[in-house]
Design goal:
225 residues; alpha+beta; 6-stranded mixed beta sheet; 8 helices; 44% helix; globular
């Protein structure tokens, strides 16, 4: 992949940050990180959400690369599987729900501005799209339509931080619960740092709770069958 120096340096900075914060495994070298970035560029950039010319994807954040890679290639407790390119392509082509716009105060290259974003929900994942910058910021996989189980520690986090917590805690299925959780996480400005392309401390806590719920309800069940 041919980057100019600034583009490749930004990619390297994103890689180092993701490794240091535990968003991806240190076993994933920068070469593999670049390969995944190229795959995203080749497969997703240029696509239009629901084939709408006003919603073309022209770029992606380094955080989005982290979300596609995940922390592990096979299910392990406390570690997040990535969101696949196939899941994302299906959600881009066939969105089931497009949220109302929400806004994030941004600071980039010394400029401050208000970024308008939407959350796109598909069959098996959701992602955040910046309408101003026309890039994808974040991606999250969903579980299946099964009854949900949430441990007491994670219930406490949901009750303390998420409005209308009952929508998650009393959900009829894990998919519905995770979709509601993802909507709150993606659209809550307190979950994002000042550059708008990575999680704040609260966002990382929330993502850990989300990953625990996903593992306990989906991957742990599969590993026991």
């Amino acid at each position: 992949m041919k980057y100019n120096d600034s583009k490749r340096y930004a990619l390297l900075q994103g890689y180092v940050k993701a490794v240091n914060k535990g968003d991806i495994s240190p076993l994933i070298g920068f070469d593999l990180y670049e390969i995944k970035a190229k795959e995203i560029k080749d497969e997703l950039v240029g696509l239009k959400i629901s084939n709408d010319i006003n919603y073309e994807i022209t770029d992606f954040s380094t955080h989005f690369i982290d979300r596609v890679l995940g922390q592990t290639s096979t299910s392990h407790e406390g570690m997040r599987l990535g969101t696949t390119i196939e899941q994302l392509k299906d959600s881009i082509a066939n969105p089931r729900k497009i949220s109302e716009p929400f806004f994030k105060n941004m600071k980039k290259n010394g400029e401050e501005y208000l970024d308008e974003r939407i959350n796109i929900t598909g069959k098996s994942c959701s992602f955040v799209y910046s309408r101003k910058d026309k890039l994808v910021v974040q991606a999250t996989s969903f579980g299946e339509d099964i009854m949900i189980i949430i441990n007491d520690k994670n219930k406490k986090f949901v009750k303390n931080h998420i409005p209308n917590a009952d929508k998650i805690l009393n959900s009829a299925s894990v998919r519905d619960a995770l979709e509601a959780f993802s909507d709150w996480l993606d659209m809550n400005p307190d979950c994002w740092d000042e550059n708008g392309y990575d999680y704040s401390d609260l966002g990382r806590q929330a993502q850990k709770v989300y990953d625990d719920i996903l593992y306990d309800n989906v991957y742990a069940n599969k590993s026991n069958t």
